[in-house]
Design goal:
Belongs to the exbB/tolQ family. Keywords: Cell inner membrane, Cell membrane, Membrane, Protein transport, Transmembrane, Transmembrane helix, Transport. This is Biopolymer transport protein ExbB. The accessory proteins ExbB and ExbD seem to form a complex with TonB. Involved in the TonB-dependent energy-dependent transport of various receptor-bound substrates. Protects ExbD from proteolytic degradation and functionally stabilizes TonB. With 236 residues, the protein is mainly α. It has one domain. The protein is 78% helix and 0% strand. The chain is built from 8 helices and no strands. The longest helix has 56 residues. 28% of the residues are buried.
């Protein structure tokens, strides 16, 4: 691209507002790429943990099953298993009036639901940044374009010349701001959609795991186990 229409030319000839818009768009782009990179790593990690979570049910007792989930405290499947165990133990050891108010099924359901809600909030953190960038960047770029065209026309009017060679440069430089806004918004939107799909997959697996945990702590066995080799866990 000719230097006449380059970003450096826009920067050198732009006023404070134009430079501010350009810096804002660049900052939004950096923020969105950082979020995409970090959250993509998290999604890949949690998908791998979800794949290995089925090993939990191929164990003779709960302690062995818990060890198969590893020692990583950020593992949501391990966290749910611990939440369920603590809720079941707490319900057994509480006074009678708690049993009258809430049975063991409701108590464990509440504990598992709280664990899922906390993980969901952590999993979706940062997505608001991508949504905001994707929805506002095109308009910020358009604002920069309108501002640049306005000042270009003012300069042309003061010079008293409106030939194509005088108009093309300033107008082309202003239009670069629109292109910059789209270049910032498109990756943010695509990244947001990809992360939402990945998060949905992880949460589906986590909810299925929580359903099996609930059945185990209430009945002592996993419900609807399709693998015939799975042995009901011994509580421990």
């Amino acid at each position: 691209m000719d230097s006449q229409f380059g970003l450096m030319n826009v920067w050198s000839q732009g006023d404070f507002v134009t430079k501010f818009v350009a810096v804002l768009l660049v900052g939004m782009s950096l923020a969105s790429w950082i979020v995409i990179f970090i959250k993509a790593i998290d999604v890949i990690k949690y998908k791998r943990l979800a794949k290995h979570s089925q090993d939990f049910w191929h164990s003779e007792d709960f302690a062995t099953a818990l060890n198969k989930l590893g020692k990583d405290e950020s593992n949501p499947f391990r966290g749910l298993a611990l939440e369920g165990r603590e809720a079941a133990a707490h319900h057994r050891n509480t006074k009678a009036h708690l049993h009258d108010a809430l049975d063991v099924s409701d108590w464990i359901t509440r504990a598992l639901r709280n664990g899922i809600d906390e993980f969901t909030a952590r999993l979706q953190s940062g997505l608001a940044i991508l949504a905001s960038v994707g929805s506002t960047a095109p308009f910020i770029g358009l604002f920069g374009t309108v501002w640049g065209i306005y000042h270009a026309l003012m300069s042309i009017g003061s010079a008293g010349q409106a030939t194509i060679d005088k108009v093309a440069g300033p107008i082309g430089e202003a239009l670069i701001m629109t292109a910059l806004g789209l270049a910032v918004a498109i990756p943010a939107v695509l990244g947001y959609n990809a992360l939402v799909r990945g998060n949905k997959f992880v949460l589906t697996k986590l909810n299925s795991f929580a359903h099996d945990l609930h059945a185990y702590f209430v009945t002592g066995a996993r419900v609807q186990a399709t693998d015939a080799t799975i042995v009901p866990l011994k509580k421990g």
